[in-house]
Amino acid sequence: MSLNTPSLPSAKVIHVDTRGAVILEEESPETRDSRGIYLPNYIEPISHIAVDVGGSLAKVVYFTRSPEPPSSPSVVATRGSDSSNSSLSTPRSISPSDDTASASGVSASSGPSTSKQNGALTPLVLEQPHATAPSALANGLLHDSLLRRTAAVAAVQHFPGGSLNFERFETDDIDACVSFIQALIERSAQVNGVPLAEMRRGVKIMATGGGAHRFYELFKDTLHVEVRREDEMECLIEGLKFITLIPDEVYFFSDELIQSVAHPNATPSVTAAPLPPAASALVPAPSPTISYPVPSLAGSSAQTPVLERPSPDPPKYGVTFESNPTPQLPCLLVNIGSGVSIIKVDEDGAFERVSGTSLGGGTLWGLLSLLTPATTFDEMLAFSEKGDNSTVDMLVGDIYGQDYSKLGLKSTMIASTFGKVFKKGGEKGTFPAEDISKSLLYAMSNNIGQIAYMNAEKYNLDRIYFGGSFIRGHAATIATLSYAIRFWSKGTKRALFLRHEGFLGSIGAWIRNIDPATELLDGVSALHSERS
Amino acid sequence: MSLNTPSLPSAKVIHVDTRGAVILEEESPETRDSRGIYLPNYIEPISHIAVDVGGSLAKVVYFTRSPEPPSSPSVVATRGSDSSNSSLSTPRSISPSDDTASASGVSASSGPSTSKQNGALTPLVLEQPHATAPSALANGLLHDSLLRRTAAVAAVQHFPGGSLNFERFETDDIDACVSFIQALIERSAQVNGVPLAEMRRGVKIMATGGGAHRFYELFKDTLHVEVRREDEMECLIEGLKFITLIPDEVYFFSDELIQSVAHPNATPSVTAAPLPPAASALVPAPSPTISYPVPSLAGSSAQTPVLERPSPDPPKYGVTFESNPTPQLPCLLVNIGSGVSIIKVDEDGAFERVSGTSLGGGTLWGLLSLLTPATTFDEMLAFSEKGDNSTVDMLVGDIYGQDYSKLGLKSTMIASTFGKVFKKGGEKGTFPAEDISKSLLYAMSNNIGQIAYMNAEKYNLDRIYFGGSFIRGHAATIATLSYAIRFWSKGTKRALFLRHEGFLGSIGAWIRNIDPATELLDGVSALHSERS
């Protein structure tokens, strides 16, 4: 099997051709990280559904074929960054939906629990030249561009292009996930005009995450398809390696951040100032970036550069998308789900879970669900945006009354999270939900950033990827994590984020569709060398 | 000035002779860490009061003279380890009060806010041979053994022996602290028969901590004595170096722990088993230790040794006291107050604050004050002892349904603190205060242990001292911190605890009574070499 060119379709190996891959527009802020990825050159027809069942969320990935990008949506796509759509429950996010100029909308109804009309899976039977031609297509269920049939099945066989689709469900409501997959399989059989039993023979579920073990029987007995369990860490790493090749998938705070914090203001307060003109030259930014006003950390160049420790109000900086991705190994992957796993990945793809912490997304959501009226993640994040954590946090200034400069501490830094809450004598104060939310968001993010940094330093890694469903494109979280990394590393390491952050495991499970005897790594490495 | 022997008293340098030092019995569990330290050989008469004002607590240290250990107390000392005294508000603690056989009780009323009749400060005037003899002693205010006077003031001058006394106040109630000091000064003047103004001339306040700056004017203007501000970190380190020389001050979990976890049971559950006989030979334990039954982690010697990650129910192990202390540098000091400071100390005593975290004592008390009915630290700790954190925490077993053994994780390990609390749809559960308390105590302790370990590893330090007022001799906290260090370091590093954990800064401030021109370090180093 030649590994140097995208080979002719083989049932055994998935060579995922990511050339020309395009991230589709988001449908709503809720599904911000579930945008489809259109792969115009991908040839292999597959019918694999990957499911990654974690502590809180079950993530589903599946591929549907179409030669052109999905066109006019049946539901108007919501622009996540459009401030006119903002409301209490829609946190402002770093949404690049303005940027993906080439993609058009997808057809989908919003919300993962509704059946998405994203196309259908392809049954294996269509690959065989002698197969019967499909019966009349059902109207209204498909894009008109999807699955254009011709009598020559050979054309179908080599018909490139299709989309990776992403769905999310609550693990506590795993039945909804199973029902969705069931409906997908049944609809696909219908659309392709094949009996359900045949459709099922060509469908395989790749299950990973803890729930792959917990729910193995459920999937198997309800869906009547083959279910394969895949190792969670291996899937995470495979997913990372794959997804970082998609243009505009990876993003980070621009280099202006480094420039600006290298010349901090002498006084703790910050005021607005224009971007230093030289800084923009540092950032090769062919893709448009979203810029925010930069508070004045410039000036005082005579002062020794001191990086601002993660402070109550991190400045807001431009986001840069990695539009020409290159191989990203070695690196550290910090997967923030209910809990946190920290995995080091070597240059050759070998990996090891080296650390973790139990203080993760589950901790923050759990604490805020008891301490505030918020009932959803986005409500909690919305609260945090309005809060002033200094009413609950003890700052360096509260203890010392001045900077503790020779220790590199500033009076605005957080000395003790929630340090102002306990009052002797049992007097229980009441604190605004917004302040509590901000304090705990900072606390969890700073802590994860610190532990992540220490591991990156230990293993001499400069790139730190943050995965998992915790971040949700939320500006303050991204800022805090970026700051923590830059503070501790003095700007030598970089925090990197992923638009499909929560789907690393499921993407990895999806591409691991191989015979045990085949070398997947060879194929992926070949893909890497083609692109670099 | 000769540095090789305890020199003749000089007004400029305190040579603190710790030979024969004895930690006095505790008065009550509340003041467990405030036991006096009797120094029978200490010669220098001083009138210095050290105050360390932190974010939550103000700690006071002062020395009073007496040639013999304080005898029969005016208030019967409570034995903290006596289970018959246990109640909801008295957490079981590792209290070594049974062990200090030689000391007798101290006279004191319990509670820091009551005026303690611990003796009096010595005015400088008594040092001068031509000073007038003191007038009649006031009865009922003194121990009969305290301050035996003779006409020959020279005898007074070289009269060895006295006690270091410790008091604690709330920083929010700093006036109580000031009043206490005022009363101490006034009483001392009275007892010594000198005018208040003369007494004040011989009293100096050494103030450290953040509050040294905040409350400088308050101290100065109310007490009318000289107030000197001392650097907090320097005081912490000085205090550490000094206090670790006191016999039975330092304690740690015995080496049986290392032996036992090196041969873990194959199954996650643990059952009681007798101590391995060989293990006791590892521990040179001239002082009595308090032993607890050792759960069975022995057996399965064929298995690769895996250290139990901090689990919901850490086994309980014997506590060993360092009765023949040796110099303890280099080391890492982890000071857990409202927040956490991590300081590395080199062999020569040079130190640097290298890290810290805002998730400290203030965080735990603050969270528990809002999430439980508890109104005091000890109530919160009592709750935690009864709790089952698995109702609120997501364990590895909850996610995977089995051990994730190849990652070194066991199903009983905590994957996500509070991971079970958030329910989609806004349904807010109620959880027992005990379970919440245990979960958050573990979370904070494990996190501090992990960050402490990473710093110890980075700087190649094996000894990790935990200071600050957070631990309070609480068994679960000590166990969790010890476990975290041993888990991450695979048994190569040791967590060490201090009975006067909260007083490092104030002790350090107390011994820093020197002229700027004098080298304190030389004196202390000489003291070290004498003892080793």
UniProtKB/TrEMBL annotation, chains A, B:
Region ranges (Disordered): 67-119
Keywords: ATP-binding, Coenzyme A biosynthesis, Nucleotide-binding
Highest taxon, organism lineage: Eukaryota
Pfam families noted in UniProt: Fumble
One GO CC term, this protein: cytosol
Record field: compositional bias (Low complexity): 81-115
InterPro entries in the cross-refs: ATPase_NBD, Type_II_PanK
Keyword presence, Glycoprotein: no
One annotated GO biological process: coenzyme A biosynthetic process
Gene Ontology molecular function terms on file: ATP binding; pantothenate kinase activity
NCBIfam families: panK_eukar
Name this protein carries in UniProt: Fumble
Native source organism of the sequence: Pholiota conissans
